[in-house]
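Backbone shape codes
____________________
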Amino acid sequence: MQVAALENLNDDEDENRTWENINENTQTSARESLGLHELKQNKPWFDEECLGFLNQRKWAKTQWIQDPSQSNVDILNNVRSEVSTHFRNKKKAYLRAKIEELETNSKIQNIRDLYRGNNDFKKGYQPRCNIVKDEKDDLVADSHSIVA
């Protein structure tokens, strides 16, 4: 696809537009050949409501930075405490629901889901480590080198 984009260059076409076409073609071909991998969300309790609270906290902080008056400091502190309380309650409710799900799996003898949920609790969030060996058996951790 990149070769076709380079061959179809017009003299009057802008160089920036050409590079944008090459970039789009590269991304499209990579998406088709490698596939699109969605990363697992590590905070399943975080939803649109939480995002609204987060934006409200960012707005209050921006107002405080622009005008560090005492009223803006008080507003920022109030918003911070509200957001923290909301996040804490949301996470507690999610954990309560997960524990109830584990209890239900235990009662109905669904052992596989019980142990899977139990391991999630014990291990917590495990960050992924993307390291690959190249042809020379050297470890490669750079994402561009891995794709190459």
Remarks:
- The two ends are 17 Å apart (CA to CA).
- The longest helix spans residues 70-107.
- The helical segments are 2-7, 15-34, 48-66, 70-107, 111-123, 143-147.
